[in-house]
């Protein structure tokens, strides 16, 4: 391999050979370009520098006889530019300053540790690369100066504004200007007036778009001498960048003498002889009018016109529709010839049928019998142009296709490589062209090449192999090679694709398949194993090759086999239906594990023949699902249990059967919450503990679990963990709180007995147990409350209501007998009796609803009618209050005959609990889907946020004014809930509160 061009020869000078060898080892390891030679003294180093070439010197400071600074000064006298690095253990500002003054390239102080050698290697590489770059730049500058100073052609460089940045001495011979007179001036200074704007526009367009308006090679045009005379020149342009800015370089050759020699002077007979016998098309052009005076038969045949039709026609008759090749452009070419410049160029013409004819045109100033004419020789180059275009297309395609392309002959040398091929090898096209094939294929020597060459049969050969880049690294590639004979010589043409990424993907996929716990399987249509991935060894206990050829269904549990076969058949017959199935599979040890398999039929173009299946071991998940289902069943059983002990028994049985831990029990708190007493425990717990302990307030783990409400898991008593039962054979313990009710305790004789799943399931069991215990307590509380409410209801029905009836009857008698103020008092008693009777009836309804004695009979009720009646009633009672209503007709809802009282209570509440002057009440109804919303809003004092939920409790009142019994809103909330609706309070945009009542709406046909 070619490494010499990049290698860096370093001379390390140090009086300690062991240290020199160490430095050499580390430097060559850090950068494989570095090759280190050593010298033990400055004198030895100077002798080697005199005889050998080195790229860099690394020297110690403290050395016998001659120190590092003195050595540096001697080296600088011989070679001022050789990179020199002072690598010393004695560092000081004085030494560094002295070294810099002596011309040291870099200064590095020795340190402990290997990291310093990476820094030193980097400093060496940077110094050498910088020196090489400067040397190359100096060589380039020297060559450029030699070329420009001795060139007979004028050479100029211009910037993007056409300002001359450089001019060589020859410009004075051609144009009369010295280089100093042109530099800094516009290039248009040496152009005729008529060409200046065109030139500036062309440069500007190229700077903006990169598109050329003309050919840059041997471009003829008439320049302007300093004395004003025309100068016929031929110009070739190139481009480069300097400091990121565009530069153009032009080589200008004086062709004035040759141009003058190019004019023909023909007699009419000489002209006719040329005109009639020429194989090319010929046209005589009037240089002033731009018309065709005469054309020969060959020209007429080429453009598809009769020869006698074209004379007198303008050039535009045969010009294509493109300004660059139209009449004006043709006349510009003619004028340049008239000014002394011979012209030969490619030019498209339009045939009579509209097709394009590409021609090569040569224009000659010609005098025929003394009269100046323009003679145009025209040659058909359409086929050549098409070949050029095809070649340009192929070259562009080969260069941009992104695939390496190369061609080599029977000598093994590359005749052509594209940029992509060079990039694969870390080189460039220029370096590779001419290089031998075996330079990138070390396994193929020159002698073996002949056999390699002859091994290619006719047609295409596709291989995967490795080539070696110019860093010596192997690059995996796919090559497609074919043979072709061109002009008697056989070549091999090949495309080379870098498949590094594909190979890495294959390696990653192979590693995934080999390491994954998922099993990849390929079955044929009969269910026979064609392939089984290595993971079957870990998951199922089978060697993959042992399963190949076996029937997969024979390993499926008999109870699951029919379902799996049916799913497999559906997937085979319906290509759009993927296989998804769970089943039990026989492990190599005879046990059954659960698998979840997903598969699909590969597309027809797939390289896989068969049915591809991905299987995953879901045994743990299935067991977890079983445990969760068992917990749900246990929860239902606990909810239906009679008392706390029944609930605890179900919980302990579940802990034993579901969690598979036989030693467990539940400790329940006494009524004072001062003791935890054993309630229910397994037989294994009784056998282990004997008499189970009672826990009281203290710092025991069991009491701490209860008091703090946090679970405790003890993995190993022998590791120093605290246990309640340290006197027993217990090694691990799990304590889970049951809220205010007690603790669930599970223990084991072995350490680390409880997995994360065990802990999670125990917490779930404890939570469900806590709910069941709480439900029982709530039911007992509700039973007591119901009994109390039934007692109060009986008092209302008999004692209170009977007493009010008697009072009202006596008041009626008094009203009949009295008058004046006494009559008014009697009437007041009557009104209050009616109000009390009404309240008693409503309270009875609520109590019967709450106790379940009287389920309300719900039916369609006309909300609109009920609400309007209540609003009218309240309006007549409170005439000083303003009302706004938006109540549509009808609107049936699900309720009973108390709906009017319910809504009336809310409206009345909005008035009675507001002292706001100018109080206004807004009542509206709207329907939203299956719900009907009643909004009762006021502009009063509003309801504080903290009371918006509590106002519906018994004894609470709404709004800011807290007067009254508070029964009205409690009654309304209770009844609306029985209707299947709800009441909430919102802030009113105008201030105050809005009571929003949601009711169940019915179809319009549902009438009361």
From TrEMBL:
One of its Pfam families is: PAS_3
Q: What class of enzyme is it?
A: transferase
Q: Please list the residues that carry the modification 4-aspartylphosphate.
A: 60
Extract the InterPro entries matched here: CheY-like_superfamily, GAF, GAF-like_dom_sf, HATPase_C_sf, HATPase_dom, His_kinase_dom, PAC, PAS
Q: What positions does the domain PAS occupy?
A: 140-193, 267-341, 390-460, 505-575
Q: Does the keyword Phosphoprotein apply?
A: yes
Instruction: Enumerate the catalysed reactions.
Output: ATP + protein L-histidine = ADP + protein N-phospho-L-histidine
User: Which residue ranges does the record assign to the Histidine kinase domain?
Assistant: 795-1003
* GO molecular function terms attached to this record: protein histidine kinase activity
Q: Which residues form the PAC domain?
A: 343-393, 579-630
Under Enzyme Commission nomenclature, its number is 2.7.13.3
Highest taxon listed in the record's lineage: Archaea
Q: Which keywords accompany this UniProt record?
A: Kinase, Phosphoprotein, Transferase
Q: Which residues form a coiled coil?
A: none
**In this protein, which residues make up the domain named Response regulatory?**
9-125
Record-linked NCBIfam families: sensory_box
Name-wise, this protein is histidine kinase
- Name the species this protein comes from: Halolamina salina
């Amino acid at each position: 391999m070619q490494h010499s061009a990049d290698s860096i020869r370093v001379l390390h000078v140090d009086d300690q050979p062991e240290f020199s060898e160490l430095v050499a080892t580390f430097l060559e390891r850090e950068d494989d370009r570095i090759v280190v030679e050593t010298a033990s003294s400055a004198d030895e180093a100077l002798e080697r520098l005199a005889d050998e070439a080195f790229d860099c010197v690394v020297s110690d400071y403290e050395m016998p006889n001659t120190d590092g600074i003195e050595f540096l000064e001697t080296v600088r006298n011989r070679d001022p530019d050789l990179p020199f690095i002072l690598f010393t253990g004695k560092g000081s500002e004085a030494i560094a300053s002295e070294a810099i003054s002596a011309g040291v390239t870099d200064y590095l102080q020795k340190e402990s540790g290997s990291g310093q050698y990476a820094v030193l290697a980097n400093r060496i590489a940077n110094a050498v690369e910088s020196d090489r770059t400067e040397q190359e730049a100096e060589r380039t500058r020297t060559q450029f100066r030699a070329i420009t100073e001795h060139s007979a052609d004028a050479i100029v460089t211009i910037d993007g504004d056409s300002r001359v940045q450089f001019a060589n001495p020859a410009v004075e011979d051609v144009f009369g200007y010295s280089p100093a007179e042109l530099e800094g001036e516009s290039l248009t200074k040496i152009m005729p007036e008529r060409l200046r704007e065109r030139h500036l526009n062309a440069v500007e367009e190229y700077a903006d778009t990169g598109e050329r308006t003309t050919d840059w090679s041997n471009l003829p045009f008439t320049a302007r001498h300093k004395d004003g005379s025309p100068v016929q020149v031929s110009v070739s342009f190139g481009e480069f960048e300097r400091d990121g800015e565009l530069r153009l370089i032009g080589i200008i050759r004086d062709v004035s003498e040759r141009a003058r020699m190019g004019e023909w002077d023909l007699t009419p007979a000489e002209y006719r002889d040329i005109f009639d016998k020429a194989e090319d098309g010929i046209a005589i052009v009037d240089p002033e009018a731009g018309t065709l005076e005469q054309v020969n038969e060959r020209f007429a045949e080429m453009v598809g016109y009769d020869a006698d039709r074209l004379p007198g026609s303008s050039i535009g008759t045969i010009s294509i529709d493109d300004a660059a090749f139209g009449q004006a452009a043709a006349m510009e070419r003619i004028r340049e010839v008239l000014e002394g410049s011979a012209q030969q160029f490619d030019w498209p013409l339009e045939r009579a049928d509209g097709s394009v004819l590409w021609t090569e045109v040569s224009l000659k100033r010609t005098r025929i019998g003394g009269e100046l004419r323009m003679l145009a020789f025209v040659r058909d180059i359409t086929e050549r142009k098409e070949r050029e275009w095809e070649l340009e297309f192929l070259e562009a395609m080969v260069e941009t296709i992104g695939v390496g392309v190369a061609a080599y002959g029977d000598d093994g040398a590359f005749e052509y490589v594209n940029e992509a091929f060079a990039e694969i090898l870390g080189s460039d096209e220029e370096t590779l062209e001419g290089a031998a094939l075996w330079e990138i294929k070390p396994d193929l020597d020159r002698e073996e090449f002949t056999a390699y060459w002859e091994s290619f049969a006719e047609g295409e050969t596709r291989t995967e192999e490795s080539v070696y880049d110019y860093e010596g690294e192997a690059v995996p590639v796919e090559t497609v090679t074919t043979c072709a004979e061109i002009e008697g010589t056989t070549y091999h043409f090949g495309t080379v694709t870098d498949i590094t990424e594909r190979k890495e993907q294959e390696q990653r996929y192979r590693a995934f398949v080999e390491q994954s716990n998922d099993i990849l399987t390929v079955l044929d249509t009969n269910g026979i194993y064609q392939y089984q991935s290595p993971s079957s060894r870990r998951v199922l206990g089978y060697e993959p090759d042992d399963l190949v050829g076996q029937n997969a269904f024979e390993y499926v549990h008999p109870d699951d086999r029919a379902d799996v076969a049916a799913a497999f058949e559906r997937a085979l017959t319906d290509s759009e239906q993927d296989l998804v199935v769970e089943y039990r599979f026989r492990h190599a040890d005879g046990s059954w594990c659960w698998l979840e398999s997903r598969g699909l039929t590969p597309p027809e173009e797939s390289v896989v023949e068969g049915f591809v299946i991905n299987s995953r071991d879901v045994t743990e998940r299935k067991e977890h699902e079983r445990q969760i289902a068992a917990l749900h069943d246990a929860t239902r059983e606990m909810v239906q249990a009679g008392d706390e002990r029944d609930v605890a028994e179900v919980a302990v049985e579940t802990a034993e059967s579901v969690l598979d831990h036989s030693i467990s029990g539940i400790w329940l708190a006494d009524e004072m919450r001062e003791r935890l007493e054993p309630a229910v425990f397994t037989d294994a717990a009784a056998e282990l503990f004997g008499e189970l302990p009672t826990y009281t307030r203290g710092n025991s783990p069991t009491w701490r679990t209860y008091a703090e409400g946090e679970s405790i898991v003890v993995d190993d008593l022998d590791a120093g963990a605290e246990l309640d039962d340290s006197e027993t054979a217990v090694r691990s313990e799990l304590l889970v709180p049951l809220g205010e009710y007690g603790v669930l305790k599970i223990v084991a004789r072995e350490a680390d007995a409880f997995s994360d799943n065990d802990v999670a399931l125990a917490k779930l069991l404890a939570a469900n147990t806590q709910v069941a215990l709480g439900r029982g307590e709530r039911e007992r509380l509700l039973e007591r409350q119901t009994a109390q409410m039934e007692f109060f209801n009986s008092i209302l029905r008999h004692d209170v209501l009977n007493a009010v009836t008697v009072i009202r009857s006596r008041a009626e008698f008094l009203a009949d007998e009295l008058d004046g103020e006494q009559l008014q008092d009697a009437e007041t008693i009557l009104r209050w009796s009616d109000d009390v009777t009404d309240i008693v009836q409503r309270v009875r309804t609520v109590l019967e609803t709450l106790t379940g004695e009287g389920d309300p009979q719900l039916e369609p009720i006309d909300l609109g009618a009920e609400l309007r009646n209540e609003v009218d009633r309240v309006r007549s009672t409170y005439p000083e209050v303003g009302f706004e209503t938006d109540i549509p007709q009808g609107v049936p809802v699900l309720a009973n005959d108390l709906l009017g009282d319910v809504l009336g209570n809310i409206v009345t509440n909005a008035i009675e609990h507001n002292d706001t002057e100018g109080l206004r009440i807004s009542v509206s109804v709207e329907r939203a889907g299956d719900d009907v919303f009643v909004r009762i809003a006021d502009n009063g004092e509003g309801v504080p946020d903290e009371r918006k939920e509590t106002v519906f409790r018994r004894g609470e009142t709404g709004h800011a004014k807290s007067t009254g019994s508070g029964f009205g809103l409690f009654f309304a909330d209770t009844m609306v809930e029985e209707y299947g609706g709800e009441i909430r309070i919102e802030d009113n945009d105008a201030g105050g509160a809005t009571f929003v009542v949601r009711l169940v709406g019915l179809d319009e046909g549902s009438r009361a």
